[in-house]
Amino acid sequence: xxxxxxxxxxxxxLAAIRAVEPxxxxxxxxxxxxxxxxxxxxxxxxxxxxxxxxxQGASDAIGEALRGGVAIAPATDSAITRSVAMFAxxxxxxxxxxxxxxxxxxxxxxxLGPNHRAIVLISGGASAxxxxxxxxxxxxxxxxxxxxxxxxxxxxxxxxxxxKHLDQLKGGLMVRVSNGAxxxxxxxxxxxxxxxxxxxxxxxxxxxxxxxxxxLILKRRGVWDNLPQSVRAHLLAGARGEHPETPKxxxxxFANITIEVxxxxxxxxxxxxGEAMRRKISGEMITTPITGEARExxxxxxRHVMEVAAGADRSQPRCIVGGGETTVTVTGAGIGGRxxxxxxxxxxVIDGAHGITIGSIxxxxxxxxxxxxxxxxxxxxxxRAREAGMELARYLQTNDTLRALDVAGAVVRTGATGTNVxxxxxxxxxx
Length: 431
Description:
CATH superfamily of the largest domain: Glycerate kinase, MOFRL-like N-terminal domain
Number of domains: 2
Number of strands: 13
Low-confidence stretches: none
Mean pLDDT: 95
């Protein structure tokens, strides 16, 4: 291996991101779809971390058939087609501009009817970026509720169940707003297993969850009593039947909706495995997604790597790649994210080991509230942190992994990648 193990691990992880590049995936998915479309006949709605690239891909594919639309992304981009209004939404917490974008999207959809066609592009982050609270619930109330659930360790399904019952577009409600228009949706999935009712909080599909479910989740996670009064009042009123439920399976409003998943976590993992093969590194692709508490699974992943290394021919490099999305139960006041916790826990297991390198990154380039994508650690990471006066185990305990891994030189920063299909993990076993 001519490059260092850390640099090779980084290139394998970056290949995972390239495999889910949204512009090309969208363009390919819509190739041929333009046939028979009149000039300026298609409205477009896009929301998510990949919204910019997906809009560009749609524009590439349908050209002059695009009439206009709305895109809500983490940042505006002057390179996007001028016929689409851009809004810079907030993530992981919604913001006022994202709410204005959601209002604009709703207004565009309300102008449609059964004789109109639209394309909707959904990618990871859409739940936060496109937020339109129900009457009586403020944006600040939505933020407080999301923050409490995330800190409690709630998974994305639980979080989005609650969001769907506090929002005017989520949980299939976007379909009702569109007045029977023919909608073709493309989805870049950030949720393991690609459940369409969870991705982006399922704006275009039946919602199997209820107000009762939302209340139960909030109580089970121990956050109910500390929520804004407006949130509790709305959910309890819904549970009593005073607000309409989100549309369920069999509702005729979904008759004109078609949806295609164009990319997901598995595609990214396959991209990582393909890069390892290109470098003639043999290995293993873990096809079962890794989910659960980040530090527990980081340690378990590292133990698996150590077991493989113990029985492997160490004369040639070997690679293990996998994917998933873990969660973090926040008990400390530090700054970190699930990939940093995964990597820190792995570093403690391989402390002092020779020839073991492990990386964990979020494909969106943002690990929780940090500026990092994740980290790449090896057998010397924990020792380097100790030499800088930071005991990695203690910093992991207080959820302060960014500082400890940064001082050890392990943090990976890619900047925002413009895509999002959860997380990818890599291990290198080298001579």
